[in-house]
Design a protein that fits this description.
By secondary structure, the protein is an alpha/beta fold. 36% of the residues lie in helices and 20% in strands. The chain has a nine-stranded mixed beta sheet with strand order 1-9-8-7-6-5-4-2-3.
Amino acid sequence: MADLKIAPAILDADLTRLGEGIRMVEEAGADVLHVDVMDGHFVPNILAGPRIVAAIKQAATIPVDVHLMITDPLKYIPRFVETGVDIIMFHVEAVDDPQPALDRIKEAGCRCGLALKPHTPAESIQPFAGQLDCLMAMTVEPGFSGQGFMEDGCQKIPRLREMCGSDIDVYVDGGIGPDTARTAVGYGANVLAAASAIFNADVPPGEALKRLRKTGENASLNDAN
C-alpha cells in the first residue's frame, strides 16, 4: 500500500493567521494541504474559491489538493487549475459523466481524483479506474466539518484498491481523529484528511498532526502483521 500521508484541512486553521497555520503544519510534517471548496448547492455550505486557493498555494511549500464539492466541476476546473494546485478531486455524484472533467484536469497537468459520498458504491468509479491518481472515500456527508465518523464510508476502500491498484492514494475525509484513523487505515486508506483533529485538538496543531501520524503508522504496522 502507498505510504501514509497526513493532509490537514487547512481552512479549519485560524484564517486570520493562515500563513502561520500553513507553516506550522508543514514544519510538523504534513504531506499535502487539503482545501475544501463548497458551492452552497451540491452541499449546504459555502467555502473558499480560486482566490483563497491561490493564496494557499502561494504560501505552501508542499503539494496542495482541492476537493471540489460543487455542482458543475467542469465549468470551474480551469479557474482552479490557474491557482497552480497539484491535485484536483471532484465528486462522481456531481456529474452524469466524469470523463470530460477528468480530461480537463489531466490536460492541465494536474493530478486527478474522484470523491465518493459515504453510501456511493465503489463501482461508480470503475470505468475511470485506470485514469485516477487518487480517490476519496468520504466518511461523513460532505458539507460541514466536525461531523461524526461513518465507518460505512470505509467499507468500499478494499474494492477501490482492487480496481485501482495498491499504490493509488486513497483519502478518507470526515471525522478523522486518533481513534477513527485506526479504522480507516485498517480498511486500506493511506491519506488522512483531518480538520478538527488537528486544528481543534487538545494540543497545538503541530503536535496533533504528529499524534495522528503516529496512530496511522501504528495501524499500518499492525495491519501488515
